[in-house]
Design a protein that fits this description.
Distance between the termini: 40 Å
Number of helices: 9
CATH class of the largest domain: Alpha Beta
Strand order of the largest sheet: 1-7-6-2-3
Radius of gyration: 17 Å
Number of strands: 7
Structural class: alpha/beta
CATH architecture of the largest domain: 3-Layer(aba) Sandwich
Shape: globular
Strand content: 15-25%
Number of domains: 2
Largest sheet: 5 strands, parallel
Helix content: 25-40%
CATH topology of the largest domain: Rossmann fold
């Protein structure tokens, strides 16, 4: 049985020329355009969460669209994260990659690193949604993807229903970086790393990943972030 092709946002049947999203919803997508702005709301929020000794160099931040629950556009990340629609995830990751490639801010990115899942959650889901996005970004930006740089050393509760303070506490110390991978990356000349996740809400998860990398990499490495959705 062949399932009908429908728009991930509105559910309307797609025309042969459309892929994953109808032309109307694609036109109306609430794009952030953050990739071309160094001091955008996402970057300001992310950098504001750092202590003074973590702040430099400034972290750039980009997201494809403004995420709002119930808008229909939230289905983009839900279909990837919970629906197993990897092809759809790759499609929208490619849209994000186009914005990053066109931006001078991200022109010197040398490696892309996905936020890791705990091995039990990855085993249950079968994949890491951040890894799906990261591999597309790395390929289209022409740089390496380093999924082994970060590991989640303890299983954490889902962040979905937690407030900002509880999100931060939930992921505190949850990630560890691999020194060998970081040393090899720095030795190869990488000076700008891109952390990737599916949605940026409070930035707590990405900030903990940032700290794990910064602790070993020192101030010579710029660490920026990119997601499909921005719900800040």
């Amino acid at each position: 049985m062949v399932l009908p092709r429908v728009c991930v946002v509105c559910g309307r049947a797609l025309m042969p020329c459309e892929k994953h999203i109808c032309l109307l919803c694609a036109e109306d997508m609430p794009r952030t355009r953050f990739a071309g702005l160094s001091h955008n709301p996402m970057a300001e929020k992310f950098n504001a969460g750092m202590s003074p000794d973590e702040y430099e160099p400034y972290a750039y931040a980009a997201a494809l669209f403004h995420y709002s629950a119930g808008s229909g556009y939230d289905n983009i990340t839900k279909a990837l994260k919970y629906g197993g629609n990897l092809a759809e995830g790759r499609f929208f990751a490619s849209m994000l990659a186009s914005e990053l490639v066109a931006s001078e801010l991200f022109s010197d990115v040398g490696a892309v690193v996905p936020v890791p899942l705990h091995w039990m959650r990855r085993w249950k889901r079968g994949y890491n949604q951040a890894g799906v996005i990261a591999r597309v970004l790395a390929r289209e930006m022409g740089v390496r993807c380093e999924p082994g740089l970060l590991k989640r050393r303890r299983r954490t509760a889902s962040q979905t229903s937690l407030d900002a303070a509880r999100r931060q506490e939930n992921v505190r110390g949850a990630f560890i970086a691999d020194r060998k991978v970081i040393d090899a990356m720095l030795a190869s000349g990488v000076r700008h790393l891109l952390l990737v996740d599916d949605v940026f809400t409070t930035g707590a998860t990405l900030l903990e990943c940032y700290r794990a990398v910064r602790t070993l990499a020192g101030p010579e490495l710029r660490i920026s972030v990119a997601t499909l959705g921005y719900a800040g």
